[in-house]
Amino acid sequence: MDIIKQLELYRLENRITQVDLAKDLKVAFSTVSRWLNGKTTPNKIQQYHIEKFLAQRFGSSALTTSRKAVVWPPIANAMGRSNKVRSKKADM
Asked: Can you tell me the distance from the alpha carbon of 50 to that of 52, in angstroms, rounded to the nearest whole number?
């Protein structure tokens, strides 16, 4: 689901105004209004903060993000993958 749709869903389910949502997100009311009306989209930093805000409210499992998921180690091992980060020195 699109992050703006999630934000609007949160706003409607919790019966808060755009003004209150803007205060919660620490942005101007006009910014939230433009997002919800489709006139603009949040930049990457704003999008990060919106995702963080929604994750606190809904729980992280309810959000779909474009970030790569970290796989639980036993599952990663079964899939032949590793979550270990290689150092650049090892590549030299």
From this structure: 5
Please state, in angstroms and rounded to a whole number, the distance separating the CA atoms of residues 25 and 35: 13
- Exposure string of 43-69, with b = 16+ CB inside 10 Å and e = fewer, is eeebeeebbebbeeeeeeeebeeeeee
Residue labelled with tokens 């808060």? 16
Domain boundaries, the chain: 3-62
pLDDT at 38: 93
Place of tokens 């930049």: 43
- pTM for this one? 0.61
Locate tokens 């489709």: which residue? 38
CA-nearest of 53, 81, 87, 57 to 69 is 81
3-62 CATH, one of 1.10.287, 3.40.50, 1.10.260, 1.10.10: 1.10.260
